[in-house]
TrEMBL record:
UniProt family annotation: Belongs to the small GTPase superfamily. Rab family.
Keywords, sorted A to Z: GTP-binding, Lipoprotein, Membrane, Nucleotide-binding, Prenylation
Coiled coil: none
GO cellular component, one term: late endosome
Keyword RNA-binding: no
Keyword hit for Zinc-finger: no
Chain's role: The small GTPases Rab are key regulators in vesicle trafficking.
Name of the featured protein: Ras-related protein Rab
Listed GO MF terms: GTP binding; GTPase activity
Originating organism: Clupea harengus
Length: 181
C-alpha cells in the first residue's frame, strides 16, 4: 500500500565546538526561529527536535547540544553514541576556536564510527559571519582543501543572529547522512 512507502528517519545530530562559538544559538535559530544575545552557557546536554518533510518522507533530527567545557573527556564517548551526523562549529572572529576544530574532529572519529567503519557525516560551520571573517581571511585558509584533508563533507559560513545558511547547512548534512546509509 501507499502507507508502506512512507518512510520515517530519526537521526541523532551532534553540535560540537568550543565554548561560545554559537552552538546553542544555531540550534535555537534552526528549531525555534529565535535568537537572543543573552549569554547563558549550556549546562550538561540539551536536546531539540526538528522535523523535516523530505520528498515524501519524514526526517526527524534530534539535535544534541553540549557544554563546550566537556570536551575530550569520557563524557564525549557517551554523548557521541549512535549519532548519524555532526556539525563542528567555530567562531569566525576567534582563531583559537578554529584551531580546536581538528581536535574536535579527531575526538569524534576516534570514539565513533558507522557500522561500515566510516566516520559519520560532518559539516563545518564558520559561525558569526555577520561579524566578519577574520579567521578565514587572516590565515589564508583554503576551506575546500581543509575540508578534504580533515574529512568534512563541506562547510558553511553561518550566522545564528542573521539567520544565514543554517537551513542550507542542515539540508546538506541530511543529504550526506541519507547517502551514507
Ligand atoms: P555556545 O557556547 O557554543 O552554545 O554559544 P552560544 O550559542 O551560547 O553563543 C555565545 C554568544 O555568541 C552569545 O552571546 C550569542 O548571542 C552569540 N552568538 C551566537 N551566534 C552568533 C552569531 O551568529 N552572530 C553573532 N554576532 N553572535 C552570535
Ligand atoms: Mg551552549
Amino acid at each position: 500500500t501507499m502507507q508502506n512507502n512512507l518512510k520515517e528517519h530519526l537521526y541523532k545530530i551532534l553540535v560540537i565546538g568550543d565554548l561560545g562559538v554559537g552552538k546553542t544559538s544555531i540550534i535555537k535559530r534552526y528549531v525555534h526561529q529565535t535568537y537572543s544575545t543573552n549569554y547563558r552557557a549550556t549546562i550538561g546536554v540539551d536536546f531539540a527536535l526538528k522535523v523535516l518533510n523530505w520528498d515524501s518522507e519524514t526526517v526527524r533530527l534530534q539535535l544534541w547540544d553540549i557544554a563546550g567545557q566537556e570536551r575530550f573527556g569520557n563524557m564525549t564517548r557517551v554523548y557521541y553514541r549512535e549519532a548519524m551526523g555532526a556539525f563542528i562549529v567555530f567562531d569566525s572572529t576567534r582563531p583559537t576556536t578554529f584551531e580546536a576544530v581538528t581536535k574536535w574532529k579527531e575526538d569524534l572519529d576516534s570514539k565513533l564510527t558507522l557500522a561500515n567503519g566510516q566516520s559519520i557525516a560532518t559539516v563545518l560551520l564558520a559561525n558569526k559571519c555577520d561579524q566578519g571573517r577574520d579567521v578565514l581571511n587572516n590565515n589564508g585558509i583554503k576551506m575546500e582543501q581543509f575540508c578534504k584533508e580533515n574529512g568534512f563533507a563541506g562547510w558553511f559560513e553561518t550566522s545564528a543572529k542573521e539567520n544565514i545558511n543554517i537551513n542550507e547547512a542542515a539540508n546538506f548534512l541530511v543529504k550526506h547522512i541519507i547517502a551514507s546509509e
